[in-house]
Amino acid sequence: MGLIGGRVVGLLGGSLISLPAFGNHEWLSSPMAAFVGLFAGVIRDVIPEKEDIWHFGPFLFLNIPQWLWRLFRYGKGNWAMLPLFGVTAMELGRLTLANAVPLNWLFSERPDNWLYATLVVLSTVMSVAMAIKIWNNTRIEINLEQNQQLLLKARMDALTSQINPHFLFNTLNTVSSLIRFDPDTARGVVIKLSNILRRLIRKHETFVPLRDELEFIDDYLDIEVARFGSDKLQVFKDIDDGALDAFIPSMLLQPMVENSIKHGLAPRIEGGHIHLRTRRRDGRLYIEIEDNGMGIPPDRLSEIYGGGIGITNVHERLRLLYGDQFKMDIHSQEGEGTQIHIEIPEVPELVTEEQFRA
After folding, report:
1. Residue 150 contacts by C-beta under 8 Å, 6 or more apart in sequence?
2. Could you tell me the pLDDT band of residue 295, with boundaries at 50, 70 and 90?
3. Are the CB atoms for 209 and 246 separated by under 8 Å?
4. Which helix (DSSP H) or strand (DSSP E) does residue 131 occupy?
5. Three-class SS string for 69-103?
C-alpha cells in the first residue's frame, strides 16, 4: 500500500490490516506492519519517476545480473530494483525479529536453514509484486477506457464537423440563387436559414428529440421547395406522434434528405417527391426516407458506405453510438428512386449521453 499510495497510506493501511493479529495478542504485528507501510512510502518518495514502481514484477529478481552489469559497466541503474531490495530487507528483518521475541508476539515462519529462508523471502517478494501487477492491470484498463471515450468523442466531433460545413455550403448556394430573382422569397429563406444557423451554433448535443430534428428538416425543406418550386419538389410526412419525443442522433436526417434532393430529384426535369416516415414499436424507432428520383446504379450502391460524406458519416455515427444495435438499409432501383430504412433503439429522455454509451 505504501508503494502505491505513499507514506500516509502505507502507515494507516499497515496499522488497520494488522488489527486482527494485534487483537490475537501478536503485540508486534501492528508496529511492524505500520513501519513496513511507512518504509514502502519512503521508497515511493525516493523513486524519481513514479511509473518505475509499476515495473516491479514477480520475476524482476531474474534481471539482477543484467542490472549489475549495466550498473558497473554504464553507471545506469533501474529504480524498479529499489522496491525489490526493500521488500527483501523488510522480510529478512521480520524473520530476524521473529526469532528474537517470544513466539506469540509476531507470527512468522522460522526457517532452520538458508534454503528455506530463501524460499520464504522469495514468496514474500512475489506476493507483493503480484499485488502491484494486479493494481497496474486495473490502472491500465481504466486508462484505456478513458482513452476510448476520448477517442469516441473526438471521432464524433470530427464527423459532425464534416456534416455541418457540407450542409451550410449547399444551403448558402440556394440562398444566393434566390436573392437574384425573388427577393421576397429570399427573405423567407433567410429567416429559415437563421433558424438553421441558430440550431447549429448553439451548444452541441449528440442526441435531440425527433420533434426538434423534424423542425430542423422542415426549415431545410422549405428552402429547397422555394428553390425548386412546389410543383417540382413535394414533401409528404407520415409521423407517428408517439415517436416525437424519442431521442435520435443530432443531424441524422438532414444529410439523407439532402442526398435525396441533390442526387435523386435535382437531375430530373419533372422533379419528384420525398416521403418521410417514422414509427415507434417495441422499444425501437423506425425511420424511412424515400424518393422517386434517379436511383443509384447497382455498382455504386455496393460501395455506398465508402463514397460521399453524407451517407458514409451517418452510417459511421450510428455505428459509433449504437454498435451492432442499429440497422441501416438502402434499397434503390435505377430510374425509380431510393429508400433508406433506419432502425435504432430508443433512448429514454432522462438518459444522459455518458450513461447511454456506458
Report:
1. none
2. confident
3. yes
4. helix 114-181
5. HHHHHHCCCCCCHHHHHHHHHHHHHHHHHHHHCCH
